[in-house]
């Protein structure tokens, strides 16, 4: 015979599992965003004429990570923070990056971007 406590625990776990499945998990972490964009630093600082294949691959993966508004805002904030820390960051190259990689992004890249929109 199942006790009332055990039955409540099973129901609670089922509800939690459903909530997590619907929610889809946490927003991407800045470390995962940085890892995807690290190969782009040479291009973004003018040390490379074109973005590398690894850079474009990372940009495409970042686009795929942005499944919700919360995800996109988290990615945007991470990129904004990283861009502010990159010595020699060239905004024009950041704006050109998605087009050079064939990736459409829903927000501009740079240290002065308002990620709340």
What would you say this structure looks like, in words?
The protein is an all-alpha fold. The model is unreliable at 5-23 (pLDDT under 50). It has helices at 4-23, 30-37, 41-44, 53-65, 69-85, 91-101. It contains 6 helices and no strands.
Would you kindly provide a brief summary of this structure?
The chain has 117 residues and is mainly α. It has six helices and no strands.
Give me the secondary-structure topology.
Layout: H1 4-23, H2 30-37, H3 41-44, H4 53-65, H5 69-85, H6 91-101
Helix pairs in contact: 2-4, 2-5, 4-6
Which short descriptors sum up this protein?
117 residues; mainly alpha; 6 helices; 0% strand; globular
State the helicity in percent bands.
Answer: 55-70%
- Quick one: how many beta strands? 0
Q: Rg, please?
A: 19 Å
Name the structural class. Answer: mainly alpha
Residue-averaged pLDDT, rounded?
A: 79
* C-alpha end-to-end distance: 54 Å
User: How much β-strand is present in the residues?
Assistant: under 5%
What composes the largest sheet?
Answer: none
- Low-pLDDT runs of 5+ residues are 5-23
How many helices does DSSP assign? 6
What series of H and E elements makes up the topology?
HHHHHH
Silhouette: globular
């Amino acid at each position: 015979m199942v006790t009332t406590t055990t039955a409540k625990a099973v129901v609670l776990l089922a509800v939690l599992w459903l909530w997590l499945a619907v929610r889809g998990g946490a927003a991407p972490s800045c470390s995962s965003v940085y890892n995807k964009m690290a190969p782009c630093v040479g291009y973004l600082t003018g040390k490379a004429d074109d973005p590398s294949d690894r850079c474009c691959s990372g940009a495409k993966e970042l686009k795929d990570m942005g499944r919700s508004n919360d995800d996109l805002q988290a990615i945007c904030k991470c990129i904004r923070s990283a861009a502010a820390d990159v010595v020699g960051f060239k905004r024009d190259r950041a704006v050109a990056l998605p087009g050079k990689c064939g990736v459409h992004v829903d927000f501009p890249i740079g240290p002065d971007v308002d990620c709340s929109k």
